[in-house]
């Protein structure tokens, strides 16, 4: 059965067996692409114990590398969010994939802390893939399922973070198995995800389209004023910047996705150093954290859509606040675990709520300002990386243990959950609220 279509061409139903309609084709290709982006973005993370030894890195230098991997993404997400509104997601993703694959393939040329840091910084641009992914599904799906679509695509894509932590040590082991020494094997291992991203750039260009109606270039031949979202107006980015709700989501996403990519960066090192595990064993355990995305982020979107249908925007924010609260408490609990089994259990517990928080956040984004979905998505997405950068500074000091840093992060996430709850309860009507209310009424009728 083909997905049901609204008059605007947006899908009102997610039919996973549909690979032909523009909306569902974009759905599948975007999550697969985002999944592969994690191999490029975080492929080096599970190999850091080897890199640390090879390049003689200190804890402070490892911390700086973690910060570099996510800091440039802040600006990349803002830029690509704006570009999506201007030139559409298809061209944006193609450019990002092809050019982003270059530093991934060539990071193996690094022979010092400084050169490795620069490559890691360049690779961080790939993190902008998230904004393009969310933008593409936002313009392809109707209000009644857009939260679920966004969360599912992002969740299945984010699952790449977990699979990366499991698979990259195996790719490394394969190179060692055919005769390469450790110091060479990690370098060749990164060529594999780089090639995959390069190929995917062409797949995205030839097999997706910008909107349900077609590609922007074709639509503008018929109507020179056509934009990705009809009614999009000049200055929408700055209007989004003036909306306090955008910045609440900015904070919230920093407290969930920002912490997710921080854990992706340090999990293998954490289990190697604290529980004396080997690289493969630590990678598999750390990978289970990311594997929770196979269902948890989608659950966040589903709960967000259900709360929105019944209670409107405040319901969506309430769900988000509750998930953030349990995430923060779970991180604090995880940081105190000395027994491996309980460390794994508590990690999966906070991972569940963290990833549901991710999904719940982007069940709100399409309802803030439907004339600037790209701008809002970009700002909120950048918030995730700001959170990761701030968290990264906690791991740069030789005086503070990873356990203490994680406990501090848990406290910060709990504070953000309270801020989100208070902001969601505010009764003052925002200038854009009427748009949101109308959208929620459409959603209830769907």
What is the compact description of this entry?
Helix content is 75%, strand content 0%.
What is the percent of helical residues?
Answer: over 70%
**Overall number of domains:** 1
The count of β-strands is 0
CATH-level-4 superfamily name: MFS general substrate transporter like domains
Briefly, what CATH class? Mainly Alpha
Distance between the terminal alpha carbons, to the nearest Å?
19 Å
Mean pLDDT: 87
The ordered H/E elements are HHHHHHHHHHHHHHHHHHH
Keywords: Cell membrane, Membrane, Nitrate assimilation, Transmembrane, Transmembrane helix, Transport
Organism: Ohtaekwangia koreensis
InterPro entries: MFS, MFS_dom, MFS_trans_sf, NO3_transporter, NO3_transporter_NarK/NarU-like
Subcellular location: Cell membrane; Membrane
Structural features, described:
Helices cover 75% and strands 0% of the residues. The chain has 19 helices and no strands. The protein is an all-alpha fold and 446 residues long.
